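Task: encode each sequence below as structure tokens.

Item 1
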Amino acid sequence: MSLESESSDRAPAEPALVTQAYDLLLWLINHVGKFPRSHRFVLGERIETSMLTVLMLLVEAAYTGEKLPLLQRANLELEQLRILIRLGKDLGVTSVKQYEHASKALLRLGQQVGGWIRQQRSLSCP
């Protein structure tokens, strides 16, 4: 087997932001699975779907030329997700410690998405 065929078998390294979003989604899915039935199928499903949307938008932005609209949608989805996570805390289905963990992860993601948005704007406006 040649070096050329070995390297083509490997997937390209995914951006750190995508990895962080994936890790948060995995944590949220496990967390939401523990919600009481009365909140799992409305709030829990919306949290999972929202975070999955963020992840898919970031993946698409990483591999396409038109990044800015995708990043802006991901940023808006992150803002909506913050509200849903806070609602979970206020309803008592998320502990303060879990809320802090999710909030910090969302803050880091939001800061990185914001930085990526600023970079894309600077590239489009000389």
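Item 2
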Amino acid sequence: MRMAIDLSTILKPFENKWVALSEDYGKVLESGKSLKEVVEKCKKRECRNPIYFKVVAFDMAILPRSA
């Protein structure tokens, strides 16, 4: 069974930005205002298997919605 990962500590400085996370979710590889910016930065740095993620405001909740 996989354990839940608490990303709040590493993502707090990147509130309202896009980030590229490492494969193990342990660190932020790149960040920027847009996904395009972060993807370009990762391509230049040759990041290995980045996980792209939009960090929303910490006082906001996102709920799934059915169609």
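Check on item 2: The first strand starts at residue 18 and ends at 21. The two ends are 30 Å apart (CA to CA).
End of task.
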